[in-house]
Amino acid sequence: MSIDLKQIIEHDMSDDCPVCRTQDLVDMVLLPAAAAWELNNALPRFSLALHGAAGMLAALLQDGVPRHEVEAALAHLLDDIEQQIAEDNVMGGPTQGTA
């Protein structure tokens, strides 16, 4: 099976962008769940996030995606994250919600 990493890391600027939907799911569900698991199991902070991410990247490698493609995709995502953090800091921090 061939995986097009570009398709899953670059925004398509549509109302139903799969990258935006994925980021929302991670922010709203996966990160809080991982933090709760770490806390309830006396694990170091971010240990589940780091090892979980590595395990998911391992699945890409097992599916035959070359390591250099995985590393390039990860570098692209990290660049986007760092840019977003810088923008959030300029604007006074990340969005706090509307509740």
Could you walk me through the main structural features you see in this protein, from its secondary elements to its overall organization?
- The radius of gyration is 15 Å and the shape is globular.
- The chain is built from four helices and no strands.
- With 99 residues, the chain is an all-alpha fold.
- The chain has one domain.
- The model has no long low-confidence stretch (mean pLDDT 89).
- The longest helix is centred in the last third of the chain and has 24 residues.
Q: Rg, please? A: 15 Å
Number of helices: 4
Helix share bin: 55-70%
Mean pLDDT: 89
Distance between the termini: 43 Å
- Looking at how many chains there are and whether they match, the oligomeric state comes to single chain
Question: Quick one: how many beta strands?
Answer: 0
| Biggest sheet architecture | none
β-strand percent reads under 5%
Shape: globular
Write the SSE topology.
Blueprint: H1 5-9, H2 18-40, H3 47-62, H4 67-90
Descriptors:
single chain; globular; 99 residues; mainly alpha; 4 helices
Question: What would you say about this model in short?
Answer:
This protein is an all-alpha fold. The chain has helices spanning 5-9, 18-40, 47-62, 67-90.
